[in-house]
Write a structure and sequence with these properties.
alpha+beta, Cathepsin B, Chain A, 42% helix
């Protein structure tokens, strides 16, 4: 469930340089692909990433509005901003649904994870016989006061309809050492953000 936007896409993409690592279609496919490409398998779980996304939506009303609009446009919720029960969606409802259901990742979710982990995420998708690559974080959503240095290399993920698979480059000499250092840096970043989210949730209360 992604918007194809001229503002964050590149048409030049050599699919042959990548191998695809299939992810299970359990609703967490994007989160699992993200974890796999970053080398954090076994260290980070999808439910932890969902909690991080929920925390960012709690603190940023603009991202929250974008997220609700995506859910509405793609039919996850019906009407303007109403829940399945017919009641108006509250922030608590959004957080509960993100954390406890397996709805697919949207553009806003990918943006949040890219900024949280200080990495560039590129989503490859074949549309009408041509390859498109969307790049996240979305530049128009970034806070200029929170600009970050992106971890290299970018995270590549393949999108096929409503499913995501991991994409890895063909191995080259020296890649193993680079991936190990990248994974350690991202893990430290994740632990820091997780602690911050815990402090935020403690302040908000039940």
């Amino acid at each position: 469930m992604l918007y194809v936007s001229d503002n964050n896409q590149m048409r030049a993409f050599d699919r042959k340089r990548f191998n695809v690592v299939p992810m299970s279609g359990d609703g967490d496919c994007f989160y699992n692909a993200f974890i796999h490409v970053l080398g954090l398998t076994g260290k980070v779980q999808p439910h932890q990433l969902r909690a991080l996304v929920a925390g960012r939506l709690l603190e940023d009303p603009d991202l929250r509005d974008d997220f609700i609009r995506e859910w509405r446009d793609f039919g996850i919720i019906k009407g303007k901003v109403f829940s399945d029960t017919g009641k108006r969606f509250r922030t608590a409802d959004i957080v509960d649904r993100i954390c406890n259901r397996t709805d697919w990742a949207t553009s806003t979710v990918i943006h949040i994870l890219a900024t949280t982990f200080s990495c560039t995420v590129r989503i490859a998708e074949k549309i009408d016989g041509r390859w498109f690559v969307q790049t996240f974080p979305s530049p128009w959503k970034e806070n200029p006061m929170r600009k970050q240095t992106r971890v290299k290399p970018p995270v590549y993920i393949l999108k096929t309809r409503n499913h995501f698979d991991a994409m890895v480059r063909a191995p080259k000499k020296g890649d193993a050492c680079m991936r190990g250092g990248q994974a350690m840096a991202i893990l430290v970043s994740f632990i820091t953000v997780l602690f911050a989210s815990w402090l935020l949730s403690s302040a908000v209360g039940p």
